[in-house]
Amino acid sequence: MTRDVNVLLPVARTRCLAGIDRCRNEGLDIRVTSTLRTAEEQYALFAQGRKPYGTVCYARLVAKLPRIEPNENVTVTKVLTSIHQFALAWDFAIIVDGKVSSDHSLYLKAGVIFEGFGCVWGGRFGETVPGRGDGWDAGHCQYTAGLTLDALKAGKRPK
Ligand SMILES: [Zn+2]
Q: For the chain, how many structural domains are there in total?
């Protein structure tokens, strides 16, 4: 699992970087926390909170992710296949006073900025992505040029 923006496909990378620049200019201390994921990594995340601790540990071992403690075996993702696997999504955190902020208004501000560059913000999944109404994810952003997950799975890529 990487937080390297350079591994994103160019159509997503340029929008991600432009959005980050704008966020910083508007006073948000924004950090990218995750970009590309392998299928093994996404499976390990999906297993978390759904499978027994030992199963999750093994999935993380296969995915080369660090071990978690038993009390960390809680749900962290809703999807088994993610836009992250197609190098078209990034997660971000807003830092305030050296800590990850949970102030939703700051995530809304960043989300609106990314939307200004044509991205889909996870905080508005319920309104903008069919079938993702239960996937509220304020620290997630993606750019697929309108391609659905099914289209990406079928091999289509944004131009
Ligand atoms: Zn995400």
A: 1
Determine the average pLDDT of the residues in 127-151. Answer: 84
What confidence category does residue 133 fall into, taking pLDDT thresholds of 50, 70 and 90? Answer: low
Predicted model pTM: 0.89
CA of 70 to the centre of ligand 1 (A): 23
- Tell me how far the alpha carbon of residue 138 lies from the centroid of ligand 1, in angstroms: 9
How do residues 22-55 score in pLDDT, each as one tens digit? Answer: 999 999 999 999 999 999 999 999 999 999 999 9
Ligand 1 centroid to 20 CA: how many Å? 15
SS (H, E, C) 64-76: CCCCCCHHHCCCC
d(CA 134, CA 143): 19
Confidence band for 60, pLDDT divided at 50, 70 and 90: very high
CA of 109 to the centre of ligand 1 (A): 17
Parent domain of 126: 5-37+82-153
If we measure between CA atoms, which residue out of 108, 111, 115, 90 comes closest to residue 33? Answer: 90
Task: Identify the CATH number of the domain in which residue 127 sits.
Answer: 3.30.1380.10
Planar angle of CA 93, 66, 88, nearest 5 degrees:
45
Residues around ion ligand 1, judged by CB within 5 A, are 91, 140
Residue 134 domain-assigned? yes
Ligand 1 mean position, distance from CA 58 (Å): 23
